[in-house]
Structures are given as C-alpha cells and as structure tokens.
Amino acid sequence: MKKCVLVGWMIAGLIGSGGAGRAAQPEKPFCKGELIFPLEHWHNHGSCIVETPKGDILVCWFHGSGERTADDVRIEGARQPKGATTWSQRFTMADTPEYPDTNCCMFIDPAGRLWLLWPTILANQWESALMKYRIAADYHRNGPPKWEVNEVLHLTPGPEFEASVSNFVNQTEARLKGGAFAEPARARVQQWLAAIRTRAADKLQRRLGWMTRAHPFVLDDKRLIVPLYADGFSFSLMAITDDWGKTWHTSTPLIAGGNIQPSIVRRKDGALYTLMRDNGPAPKRLHQSESHDRGDTWAPVTDSELPNPGSGAEIISLRNGDWVLISNDTENGRHRLAVQISDDEGKTWKWKRHLESSSPTTDSPDAFHYPSILQARDGTLHASYSYHLGHAEAKDVDGQPARKSIKHAHFNEAWVRQGDAK
Question: Which one, out of 61, 269, 303, 322, has a CA that is 20 to 30 A from the CA of 80?
C-alpha cells in the first residue's frame, strides 16, 4: 500500500504562489498524512475539509451504524489548530434525533461565516433526503460551532425541470428505437427512463431526494452555487442563492444518466466547468458540463477522458491558475486515490501522483474515496477522504474489526509534479 511520504527536492517552473510567466523558487516536495481518529468498526464516510480565517483546518463527516438501515447517523467534526500536528477530540456538528444525517459539506462565505450543509434522510432511502444548512460566525473556539442559523434548503424545481426531463426522455427513447443500446443495458435504460418521467411529474419527488457532496462554490460576493444530485433521478442540479440563503432557485438539470455529485471550477474567461461522478450503469468516465450564465443553465453532459469507477471526485482551481483533481483514477475499484494537476484548464492532466494505492485483487479490497481538497493560504494542499480497510486484524474498543476512519493528507504541488516513486 503506497502512502505519501517526505521525498527529495525538485525544481518546478510554475508552482506555489507564482503565476504564469513568473519563475518560482525551488520548492521542496512533501506529503504527510494521518488518521483523524483511530480505525473503528463504525461507518465513517463523506468528509469535507475547510481552512478557517485563523488558519485552523476543520473536517466534517458522517458517522453511524449505517444510514440505509439505522437512524443513529450524525455529522461529526474535528479541528487541527494552525501549526499543530494532531487533531482535536471529535464533536457533533449536526444530529437530528432518530434520523440519519449524511453527505455533509462546508464552506466559509465572504463574511467569514462557516456554513454546514447536509441531507437528513427521512426514511433510510436516498430518495427521502431533505436538505438542511447551518451558519455560524462563532466557530474558532474548541468544540462544535455555535450555530446561529438553522434552516431547511427548500428546493422548488419549476416547470422547466419537468420539461427538461421530458425532452431528455424523448430523445433517449428515440435512441433506444434506433438501436443505440444493447441488452442488458437496454432494459435498464428503459426502466430508468420510465422512473424519472414519473418522478419529474410528481411535485414531492421533485423536491425531495437532493443531496450535497462536494464543496459549495462561491462565485463572487453575490452568488453561491450548491451542487446537488439525486439518486432517484441519477442526475444533478444546482441550488443557487443571490442573497446568502434568504431565497433560492435552481438551475436547469444536468441530465445524462448517472451523472451525480458535481464539483465546480471556474475558467479564466468566467465560464463554469463541472466534473461529475459516473453512476453507471457501467461507470467508466467522469461526466462533464459547463455554464456560461453563472450556473443558471448548463450545456449537454458528455463524458470526459478521466476514468471513474462510480465514485466521488473533486476539482479546484489554484491561485496560480492550475487546476487540481482528486479522484479514484480507475474504471473499477476505489483502491487507488490520485491527485492530478492541469496547467491548461483540464485539456490535459500532465502530472499525477497517488495518495493511496493498494491491491484490488482481494475479496475485500481497501477503499480510499469520497475525497475533499483545498488550497490553504500558504499555497499548500490539504485533503480529507474516507479510509476504509478491507481486512482488519485489530479490534476497536467495541471488540469489532477496526477498519474505518477519515484520513487527512497535507502536501504541495511539487510533490504531485514529482510523480509516483519508481
């Protein structure tokens, strides 16, 4: 199993805080990582990472015995103070009594407030998700933030939503008649089309089931875009506010069949670009789309050239203009977690290095997945991700196999550009 370790020196032409055309100073590659808490049998998954204005690192994730079957799932968090190498004791960020809380994400708004967004699962099925959010100005102290705002994010896809779904269904049915799909995919596509047509026509099913995954995207001091997806529809949607949560509207849906969990980045010309997990029926590539009107409408979804096994990914833009992607770079399995860098806004990904890599051939392979990434004020990169071992001989305090935690990794561009050790 590969893990990030301290490696030697390298010279990089355009790294760190320098921009295009400016020679950067030699930067020493580094990568270090640690578990935020010891491995345990509880399910810990779906983390998100932010840096506070004071330089602390905050991570949230969901923890419990299984959101599909139990109601004990809650949102937990931990803090690594600026300059520290250890993490605080875990604390509760959100816990709806007798309901599972899952798929959390965070960001810090232009006023310096911390937002936590997550879905509460009403009936142990993703289709019953109800989006919520909290806001805190007081979150720099030890322990959980002091939440001042607690709201439901009411999603109201309008008539254009149903029209967009109907148009997509009609086009796909025409492709079916033309022989575009072979069995057994043909039968699965037919069933899915019938299901989403029914769901889109039902007001309750249009409004429930939407969930967060990647960081919300602060477009400017006026607009916030919250990327959402729904397993019931198996496609994506953007929730948009221009008054920081007082009112919300939705974008046109991003529909292609299995494009979920969008992550957004902005190009230098102002256009928005999103990469989305490929949810099947046979995951192969990250899906992509773009918007030229501040996220209100999106171009038809297409496949990118980036492999994806049906797992979450996140993309960010660095201050020097480079893009960074963190994802499982395979067509099958989550046993490998890679960080890639593009210096041409995603046209090519010239540099890649693996934070984790293990054998996929065991009966219970390891999984390093659902990553979250940020660039800190000092220019370095921080990531958090689910760290799930397939086999665990050690036992946790409950006497169960110790297999799951959330891992934090801290590294720089130079480490990624150096590539995997031979």
Answer: 322
